[in-house]
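Check my protein:
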Amino acid sequence: VYINTQSNAANDYTEMVKITVADSTGDEAQCQLAIDVDIIDTNPIGVVIADKLVDLNNAESDMLNLDLALVSDLLDDDHNLVYIGENGDAIDFNDNENWALKSENVKIDGEDESVFNEYTNTNNPNISVFIEDAISVDI
């Protein structure tokens, strides 16, 4: 696993890493490894976001804990956020007393094969989170 230590990197780059190994007698060997680093935009929960769409389709069971602060940081200009995923993925609204199911079986432009459930924040009903129906939701 390679962790990017160049937090200000904006473009893909190649990192040169020197590796030195030694055996119990003290004999050493060295090699250099070139690592191509691709910069991607990630959100605080570590999934790639494109146009305020959070894609959990990664063949793993993802569990996300959401609250209003995190959702607010990810909203688009229309105060919407869309989660797509697969069976096994789950979302838990940490502040679940502040969220309510508003609509079921909602269609989203560009996601023709899927239906979504819309959740709104009871303190700010202008905020909508659309979650694909394959994703389990704890509210």
Q: What stands out?
A: Residues 1-8, 40-50 have pLDDT under 50 and may be disordered. The chain is about 5% helix and 50% strand. The radius of gyration is 21 Å. The longest strand covers residues 111-121.
